[in-house]
Write a structure and sequence with these properties.
The structure is a homodimer. Chain A is built from 5 helices and 10 strands. By secondary structure, chain A is α/β, with parallel strands linked by helices. Chain A folds into 2 domains: 30 residues, no CATH class; 142 residues, Rossmann fold (3-Layer(aba) Sandwich), CATH 3.40.50.150. In chain A, the strands form 4 sheets. Chain A has a 4-stranded mixed β-sheet. In chain A, a hairpin with a 1-residue loop joins strand 7 and strand 8. Strand 6 of chain A pairs antiparallel with strand 6 of chain B. Chains A, B: One of its GO terms (molecular function) is S-adenosylmethionine-dependent methyltransferase activity.
């Protein structure tokens, strides 16, 4: 098992929290990643792909590193969430929230403030994500535009606004099984 | 070749415009459609599926009616377009248009006025469309969230606003080839 991050501090934190001493942690920039081919059963990426500029190169690397029939699962910020140039809620007089979308078709750089100022993201349409995966040879298995259940809202009322628009996209894909 | 519509007048118009006398036109309600199995090479549906309540039943009928390796291509209103309870542009002081989204996760009935008052549509998330197709056995080949090219906007300036959010979804899927 191989764990990758671009941050030394995140890797230290991961090692500290880890319960499995066989996990190898490695400092890597996913823009430059190289992996040995036909090696892994599963690749998993959490909320990172919307930062990657050379995404098709990374998808190629992941595809080649998977064994036949291997899976790739990732979450990213949803294109509805990354599209607006100045993202934010609009609140009507009755308190009802909406998420104004613009520039959905204009892919590329978005700059927002999150923890620090000037965080750079890459907006891509949902079609672009899926078609890049299909072009690479992956089979689309499941597309989840995450939203909270009623029970989750009861337990955590601030999740309520997530009913209005998806913030997170989760995709499950597979390398064809040629065995 | 078989052409279906629920409207007698649309079928008359189709026959009138038709250049191929071998096309069979039939009055059908897609909510109740039956087709002979393993018969067709291609199914095509234009801007209709967002009206269908029993969509998984219809997808099953289409899947079964296709030959091995047969294709299904459809357009529908995009979930970003069907989500809001009261759809419409919001215009900022600088004239910039946005499309406020709400209730994206609340699937089901939407009532809007289009040609006549009180047109009923069914909102589904993009994930739901794709997962229904995958569950039925289809392979996702291409997902297009249509937007205009620069050239198309030059030729037809009113298409400009379509940059801000997709109105139309086009999906190309295939029944696995078991030959």
């Amino acid at each position: 098992m191989l764990g990758l991050d671009i941050s030394e501090r995140m890797l230290s934190k991961a090692k500290e929290l880890s319960v499995d001493s066989t996990i190898v942690y490695r400092l890597e920039d996913l823009e430059q990643l190289e992996l040995s081919p036909n090696t892994y059963d599963l690749a998993y990426s959490s909320l990172t792909l919307h930062y990657i500029e050379r995404l098709s190169q990374l998808l190629k690397t992941i595809y080649q590193s998977l064994k036949s029939g291997g899976h790739f699962i990732f979450s990213s910020e949803h294109p509805i969430y990354t599209a607006p140039m100045e993202p934010g809620w609009s609140v009507a007089k009755d308190g009802r929230k909406s998420w104004p979308i613009n520039n959905y078709q204009t892919e590329g750089r978005r700059v927002t403030d999150w923890l620090v100022k000037g965080v750079v993201k890459q907006h891509r349409t949902l079609g672009t994500y899926l078609n890049m995966l299909i072009k690479q040879g992956f089979i689309i298995k499941h597309v989840e535009e995450w939203g909270p259940t009623r029970q989750e809202i009861i337990e955590n009322p601030s999740l309520d606004e997530e009913i209005e628009r998806p913030m997170i996209l989760l995709v499950s894909i597979q390398k064809p099984d040629r065995k």
